[in-house]
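Known limitations

Structure tokens in this collection are predictions and should be treated as such. Users comparing against experimental data should check residue numbering before alignment. To illustrate the layout, the record for 6-phosphofructokinase is reproduced below. The input appears on top and the generated tokens appear beneath it.
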Amino acid sequence: TSVFLSGHLSMSGALAVVPRKYCVYACMNAAVRAVVRMGIYVKAKVYFVYEGYQGMVDGGDNIVEVSWESVSSILQVGGTVIGSARCKSFRTREGRLQAAYNLVQRGITNLCVIGGDGSLTGANLFREEWSGLLEELAQKGKIDEEAVKKYAYLNIVGMVGSIDNDFCGTDMTIGTDSALHRIIEVVDAIMTTAQSHQRTFVLEVMGRHCGYLALVSALACGADWVFIPEYPPEEGWEDSMCVKLSENRARKKRLNIIIVAEGAIDCHNKPITSEKVKDLVVQRLGFDTRVTILGHVQRGGTPSAFDRILASRMGVEAVLALLEATPATPACVVSLSGNQAVRLPLMECVQMVSFWQKFTILLMLVTYLFRSFENNLNTYKLLSHKKPDTNFNVAVLNVGAPAAGMNAAVRAAVRVGITEGHKMFAVIDGFEGFARGKIKEISWGDVGGWTGQGGSILGTKRTLPAKYLEKIADQMRTNNINALMVIGGFEAYESCLQLHEARSRFEEFCVPICVLPATISNNVPGTDFSIGADTALNAIVETCDRIKQSASGTKRRVFIIETMGGYCGYLANMGALAAGADAAYIFEEQFDIRELQANVEHLTEKMKTSIQRGLVLRNENCNENYTTDFIYQLYSEEGKGVFDCRKNVLGHMQQVKMTLKLQTSLNLYEQRTYREHYSRKVFANTDDSVCLLGMRRRNLVFQPVAELKTETDFVHRIPKEQWWLKLRPLMKILAKYKTSYDVSDSGQLEHVAMHSPKEAETGAI
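Generated tokens:
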């Protein structure tokens, strides 16, 4: 769709979380880059406003028109290239009057603000006053009446930047995922020394009013205890915590991790500090205890792949929102809901946040404000306590290639199962091991420390159960297995299909069976995301960053990178978007020699600019003839005299984000299904008792594997429809290719909704 913007586009770098404080986050530059390049793509003039609202008030060299090359090589850079500063003058009408004059002088009528609720509130006030400010400028003789009419309306679109993930209306704010990466990196480093010296570490993370970082990092690293402002511990928490730490040491655990949000409080509204927790552990237990305060480390560093893609998508959506804005359109903020970009009225979001800050009814805040917060909290509580009663026996096994997060998934399965009173069994080496009787009961302590370990501790094989059906049925009967959890990729999905089809012959398979998708390829039907894909994507992006850095001193060089994924181009396409690549070759979008030649010509033109390096990603099975070697040789030959070429095959280095949420839902599903269909004969006639748990758009959903067969390309082991293909034009646009961009899915303006616990139970997780 060809679209044009009336007026000019401007970007503000105001990054204030609240009016009195400004903060910079790891992935602002990806949003800046996307807005600039999308704006230029739709033939708009784009301006930087340096130093936030202060630069808008000061004008002069702080408001500068920028080009395509101005945002080159900033994707991997933390902070923001356009700066940020406190601005008291913008809070006054005189300051806003001067800012309006500076914008009108340059013909700027559209503003994209990247910041928190304070910045966005200021932007909305500026918009509301705009016509009055212009009239006042005309009365003072600074602008004429023609300018008042020409620039009569100011359009505002906001993007939320906050590591606390504390803005209402979005599942994730820009910078949060990168901050979590920093925290987990520190925890992983600390755990090695804590293990060696049998120490307890108290980690303080940011979160003055919101405990998201503390809670999710506690889930990801398997912390022993966590303190957050939204959930003050009950009276006597000191005794409970010390008992828990002692029990863990008694189970021969050599370390303890306690995570404290900086705003943590007790039930009397008194602060719980990291030093207070440390002193308590030392005095009562005598454990060697250390405190680590992460501080501003969490704000900086290289952005994660998720944050880069999120910021790029939001930047493009912000420009589209400005294109479609009318004088009657309220200022909006671009948000993320599931895997969809949505637009919400800016002031509805700000007012909702303000409302909950005024009324600190903590339980209600957890329940209603943030869609994922309550589920994370409940998951942490489930994984921290256990019940003695036994309901039924559940077997857990891994199938297919190893993927990061498999061990965390097994840990969650075991602990949630035990918490619900079930007896858990671990199957070694997939279905092949199952047939050979390699099954054993697994306890709470057996899975301690599994969250941070890669690969598959249980062992995993690609073997499907078809040739072992009788032996597997014998083992299920011998061990009285009442439910089966299969964690893996496409092979896990196929395995459950085979077990479902074999129910008529083997009554033992008439039990609840559920697949938890775990594969770096992200090629399992029925889910938008798989466990392990995010980790693999980060490995690819990190490698691409290093390769691009190595080329910084060598001009005119193009790198050809081969990624894994089988026939699924998810890693290549999303890696290209996150790394700022010039092209990505995937199986889902067929290409020929003419397109390869066009890409070479595109890179040849690029080398004439100040950006004298290129990056091309290729999915390993994108084309049987146009191999990585062929593309490398073609680029080398056609680029002779203009650029030279290098190639790199990433291989198995590509081998925890959604794991716990998915696994908790899976356990609850199997328990509910088993109780509803207590008779095994009933199971034989119900397709919904063999399900795959996946994320579809905004929700986690259980889908019968039998129904997913029609959505599957079994020859190439990919879903017939894949959501991420809609982002492919975005990657091309940001690489300066002329292409069409489907705006039919662009976020229409929605309204902020409040979610109740009942909605969470019914699948709106």
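For this record: Residues 528 and 624 are 27 Å apart (CA to CA). The first strand starts at residue 8 and ends at 12. Please report discrepancies through the issue tracker.
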